């Protein structure tokens, strides 16, 4: 081997070792790779940083903006609500609906694009379901990679092997030639991800949190048993009364949060506005102790209804919680909630109190607030945003859910139209993928679906740097001859083996190489060797080439194997070894299915 080859192999080994050690951030390791390659002379400094201008990096950055538009207009939240409604509190059921969606998208557009679009949906779903993002994001990425196996345009390796067949004077593959094998891998892969991988998936907390989540606050203030859903029965004295007229808090210690009428929320504020009148058949969402609730229901002809966790998720879309501290110089000290009239002053209600770190019973008319008290406030997100301007309170915690509250909800139809146009344009080929996605990102900004500040904040720097930094590695391996060396020696071991052994060997070679360099670059290198070997052995090249294409999409074992994996690395707070633990068994399943089905569909 030449000195350049030794250098590239050593650099690749050190990089993998650093990734596995988790002692240095992966994006910093990628930057070290860029500097090392620039100084090596194997590629020029311009080529070493060329990854930052690669179309795939620009496309991913633009897709972050498109995804932010879906988040800020409430589409991501609505999709998460639907998934949560159909999936309930079961992680398996959630995946059952989520995985086919991303696989279908990946069959007709870039798998990277599909994951980037669904990333905000899954993060929203994770926060509201209580499942760690790491339990959902890796299956999402793997399903997207498998989805690329379903059609000719699903992933570049499929197009490369088809083009290689055409350039050799053979019949190229048709649009759905990959579908039977890809569909089998998808079905078996989904079963594995839902039934087996759930025992292998880590449960990591998100890498960055802006505060304690709403559900943690509910539990921390022991509010889960105090949230109730009531129905206003015929003959109830509450009919046609406002909350103020009914004196819910002063007489019954009951806080009315929202009213559901004919399936829609009448008010998004907490508590309901003073002039809101209740009607027969209304469903009331209230906070009250079990004792106060029983007294309230008996006096006002109300029926208690089941209050599932989905009610909290539904409420979170328009209302939330904030934890604040009462400083010594606050004018609120020494006053009761009735005297303070916080509903009128702040538009918020106090629903929990901690004094000396201990939960303290709170009475609307008699509990006097004291310096050092920690209060849990409930109200609309708009009101919670303005809390930082108050001189009477110190904000301790605003939940991360605040970041995904729609700020441009009225633009949702526009965002949907932009998304639909992008998908149609990419699927039909009217525009190339990069142009379609860049135009969509620009349209999101120009139409007000997302502002520039939100667009810049949406860019995941860790993922972009990691992808851009590792892309030149493939060029260095090709320029130094390291890739040719690997393939020639590995293919040479096959010798005159059987056609099935040829497919198995090529699958392993392609799959292993795809874990560390671009699957596109791997396929470009392996495809002509595979075709020539098949022709020399006198076997039908179709099953051999399909094996190479499927193998190139099994980039499951490392986070740098595909931009798809890299996208979910930071949000899921994954470690390098997490991918190997979950991904290698899936690679083996794909190998077995490919070797079993390919000879049946494309005889040797």
TrEMBL record:
Instruction: Work out whether the entry's keyword set contains Transport.
Output: yes
Give the membrane topology, semicolon-separated if more than one: Multi-pass membrane protein
RCK C-terminal domain residues: 215-302, 309-393
Query: Tell me, what's a Pfam family for it?
Result: TrkA_C
Annotated compartments: Membrane
Entry's transmembrane regions: 31-49, 95-124, 136-155, 175-195, 412-430, 436-452, 459-477, 489-509, 516-538, 544-570, 582-602
Q: Which UniProt keywords apply?
A: Membrane, Repeat, Transmembrane, Transmembrane helix, Transport
- Could you identify this protein by its name? SLC13 family permease
């Amino acid at each position: 081997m030449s000195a350049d080859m030794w250098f590239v192999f050593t650099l690749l080994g050190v990089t993998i070792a650093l990734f596995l050690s988790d002692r240095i951030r992966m994006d910093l390791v990628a930057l070290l790779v860029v500097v090392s390659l620039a100084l090596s002379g194997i590629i020029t400094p311009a080529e070493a940083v060329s990854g930052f201008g690669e179309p795939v990096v620009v496309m991913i950055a633009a897709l972050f903006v498109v995804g932010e538009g879906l988040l800020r207009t409430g589409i991501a939240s609505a999709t998460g609500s639907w998934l949560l409604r159909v999936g309930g509190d079961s992680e398996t059921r959630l995946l059952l609906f989520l995985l086919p969606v991303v696989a279908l998208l990946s069959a007709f557009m870039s798998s990277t694009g599909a994951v980037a679009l669904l990333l905000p949906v899954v993060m929203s779903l994770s926060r509201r379901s209580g499942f760690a993002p790491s339990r959902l994001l890796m299956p999402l990425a793997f399903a997207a990679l498998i989805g690329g196996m379903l059609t000719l345009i699903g992933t570049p390796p499929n197009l490369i092997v088809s083009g290689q067949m055409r350039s050799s004077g053979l019949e190229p593959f048709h649009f759905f030639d990959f579908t039977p094998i890809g569909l089998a891998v998808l079905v078996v892969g989904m079963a594995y991800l839902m039934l087996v991988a759930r025992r292998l998936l880590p449960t990591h907390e998100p890498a960055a949190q802006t505060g304690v989540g709403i559900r943690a606050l509910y539990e921390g203030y022991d509010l889960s048993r105090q949230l109730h859903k009531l129905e206003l029965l015929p003959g109830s004295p509450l009919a046609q009364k406002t909350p103020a007229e009914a004196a819910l808090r002063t007489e019954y210690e009951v806080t009315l949060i929202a009213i559901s009428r004919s399936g829609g929320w009448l008010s998004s504020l907490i508590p309901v506005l003073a002039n809101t009148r209740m009607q027969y058949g209304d469903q009331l969402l209230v906070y009250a102790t079990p004792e106060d609730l029983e007294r309230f229901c008996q006096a006002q002809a109300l029926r208690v209804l089941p209050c599932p966790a989905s009610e909290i998720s539904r409420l979170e879309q328009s209302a939330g919680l904030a934890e604040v501290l009462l400083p010594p110089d606050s004018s609120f000290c020494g006053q009761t909630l009735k005297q303070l009239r916080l509903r009128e002053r702040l538009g918020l209600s106090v629903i929990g109190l901690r004094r000396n770190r201990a939960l303290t019973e709170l009475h609307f008319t008699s509990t006097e607030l004291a310096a050092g008290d920690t209060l849990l406030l409930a109200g609309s997100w708009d009101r919670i945003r303005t809390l930082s301007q108050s001189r009477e309170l110190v904000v301790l915690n605003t939940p991360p859910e605040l970041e995904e509250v729609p700020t441009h909800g009225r633009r949702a139809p526009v965002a949907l139209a932009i998304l639909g146009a992008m998908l149609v344009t990419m699927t039909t080929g009217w525009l190339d993928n990069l142009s379609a996605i860049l135009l969509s990102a620009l349209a999101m900004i120009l139409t007000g679906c997302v502002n520039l500040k939100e667009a810049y904040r949406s860019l995941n720097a860790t993922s972009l740097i990691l992808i851009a930094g590792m892309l030149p590695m493939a060029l260095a391996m090709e320029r130094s001859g390291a890739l040719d060396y690997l393939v020639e020696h590995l293919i040479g071991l096959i010798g005159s083996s059987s056609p099935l052994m040829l497919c198995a060997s090529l699958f392993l070679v392609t799959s292993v190489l795809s874990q560390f360099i671009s699957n596109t670059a791997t396929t470009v290198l392996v495809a002509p060797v595979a075709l020539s070997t098949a022709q020399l052995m006198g076997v039908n090249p179709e099953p051999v080439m399909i094996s190479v294409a499927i193998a190139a999409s099994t980039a499951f074992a490392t986070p740098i194997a595909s931009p798809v994996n890299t996208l979910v690395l930071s949000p899921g707070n994954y470690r390098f070894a997490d991918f190997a633990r979950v991904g290698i068994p899936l690679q083996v399943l794909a190998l077995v299915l490919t070797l079993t089905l390919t000879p049946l569909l494309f005889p040797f």
